[in-house]
Every structure is written in structure tokens, then in C-alpha cells.
Amino acid sequence: MVAPNGVRTTVYTNEDGHYEFPKMQAGAYTLRIPTPREFHPYRIDSVQIDGTAKLDDIVLERVSPGDGLPATPEIETQLSGAELLWNVPGTGEEKALFQKNCSACHSWQQVFRNRYDERSWNLIVDRMTHYSGTSLVIRIKGTSSTGGGNNSVSRQDGTSDDEANILTKWLARIRGPEAKDGPLRVFPVLVERPRA
């Protein structure tokens, strides 16, 4: 519920779908459910609140008849990183490499909301695995394989060139410009039941 002054009051339903708002000032409110994941957004403007008022039942419309949700940006932004990783195609090795290399600095959502070709993913993977911390200019150097100096480049987290290549090709396949997402599955919501 959004008050005329912009203050938002959020309530949750119980397992039977009942909800109750605290006492609110009189006025015209906006009643909305903006990101309900499995359902279309719901909004009613100018809901008049004056004392104790019973609101009409809220009936939400499902976005799809089955369990799979359409892969839209609006729904994808509501999924956790683990749900996104669960939904993208790939082998266990590819997903494990992604977890190993793309978990320390940013969320997985940040990666999955982008779509690049293989060349661009290669540049990103190179940047993420060759540079130290948040610095844009400090390239990590290691000892050369010949033992004669400190001019060969080693990866920040021990990722081999083969692993980086696998990761790049996987990202280009699942998040390339032409990649198509299948229906999205979501983790079940755990409902805490009151103890007897």
C-alpha cells in the first residue's frame, strides 16, 4: 500500500491468503503487488482508506498455466542467482567453473542479465580473471614458465587458460545475442508454520 505521501506499508498473507494492514491515515492509497513472480503485477489506484475498511479480494492472474515461467526480464530480476544458474543449460563442469570464477566480486544476476558474443565474453572473462581487485590497471604478474623473469601473466584465482576458454564458450552459448531461454523454474517457497 503506497500512501499519498509516498510511504509504503507492506504486509504478507498467511497460508490461507488473509492479510491485514495496520491502522493507516485516511486518504487515497495505491494498492499494488509489483513483482509477484508467478503472477502478473497487480495495481489499483485511489483506494480510499477511512478508518476500518475491508478491501475487496485480490485475485492474481498467473503468467503461465504450468510450473514453468516465461523467461522475461521482469521475472528474471526476481530470481536468485542460484535459481538463475539452475535454469541455464550447461554441464556440471561449466557451472562449477562459473561458481568458482564468478562468485567473489558480484552477483550472478549481474552476469546473467547481459548478452554478448564470444569475443566480448572472452574480454570480460580475461578482465575478471587477470586483474587484481577493483583496480583497472594492476595486471597480475607471475613468474615465467622458463624461470627467467616476472613477465608472464597468471590468473588471479588459479584459473587455467583451458578453464577460462570453457567458461567463455559457455557464457557465449547461454548468454549470447541469439541465445533463447527456456521456461524458468523457481525454488519452492518455504512456509514457516506456527508451532503447536
Characterize the structure shown.
The longest helix is centred in the last third of the chain and has 14 residues, at 161-174. Mean pLDDT is 82; it is low at 142-154. This protein has helices at residues 73-76, 81-87, 92-101, 108-112, 118-130, 161-174, and strands spanning 27-33, 42-49, 141-142, 152-153. It has a two-stranded antiparallel sheet with strand order 1-2. Strands 3-4 form a two-stranded antiparallel sheet. It is elongated, with a radius of gyration of 24 Å. Helix 5 (118-130) crosses helix 6 (161-174). With 196 residues, it is α+β, with helices and mostly antiparallel strands.
SSE pattern, N- to C-terminal:
EEHHHHHEEH
Q: Could you tell me the radius of gyration in angstroms?
A: 24 Å
Number of helical segments? 6
**Number of distinct beta strands:** 4
Strands of the widest sheet, in order across it, are 1-2
Pairing-aware structural class of the strands and helices? alpha+beta
C-alpha geometry: elongated
Largest sheet: 2 strands, antiparallel
**Strand-residue fraction?**
5-15%
Question: Would you identify the regions where 5 or more consecutive residues have pLDDT less than 50?
Answer: 142-154
Mean pLDDT over the residues: 82
| Percent in helix | 25-40%
Short summary of the structure?
This protein has 196 residues and is an alpha+beta fold.
Give me the secondary-structure topology.
Blueprint: E1 27-33, E2 42-49, H1 73-76, H2 81-87, H3 92-101, H4 108-112, H5 118-130, E3 141-142, E4 152-153, H6 161-174
Antiparallel strand pairs: 1-2, 3-4
